[in-house]
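Q: Study each token:
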Amino acid sequence: METNLANHKWTYIFFCLSLFLSACNQESGQSEKASGSERTEDHSAHDMQAPSSNTMMDLMHQNMTAMHEAKMTGDLDRDFAALMALHHEGALKMAQEEAENGQDTMLVNMAKNTLATQKEEQEQLQKYAESRQSAAGDTAASRKLMQSMEAAMADMDHTTAGTTDQHFAKLMGMHHQSGIDMAKAYLAGAKAPEIRKMAQKIIDEQQNEKQKLDNWLEQHPQ
């Protein structure tokens, strides 16, 4: 009888010990699984990081594409107003990007000024273009307005290196130059006094800003 009780006692002890070891093994396995899961999540987060890109370049390319697809009528005054309104749209988007993500005080302030002044000019240009419902004619002179944009596309540096400030200074400078060239090409055949005056104003203002951008780039080499 005592022997049977002893046997039952040892059986119970071994049973409890077995349960304890099994629980430990399960906990260890779950811990290793969780650790592995954490490592996988960390790796996934690393892989999900967005590759470096040049947002300014993307915006400028989209703007040039929109201008290239614009319908010309042959009315040089109307076509210039429509194209320059589109050109301003590109500048506004680039300026918005700089205002939100730039770090340089001078460039951010320039971008904010662009948002104010070019938005007003854009609305005036759009209003004029919409008021001129000209019949389709010879668009050769109007198409020449696009040559500066096409040249800028060909010369564009597609590198993604650099900061938002550097991208803005470089590409807005190019954008300004194409606007200056387009305005000068328009003045050769301009007829509408108000649009002629606006074109000259654009030349003066963007030449001044481009000089500031060029100076900034010289002082902040990439």
In short: Residues 1-17, 23-52 have pLDDT under 50 and may be disordered. The CA atoms of residues 145 and 186 lie 7 Å apart. The two ends are 93 Å apart (CA to CA). Residues 2-47 form the longest helix (46 residues).
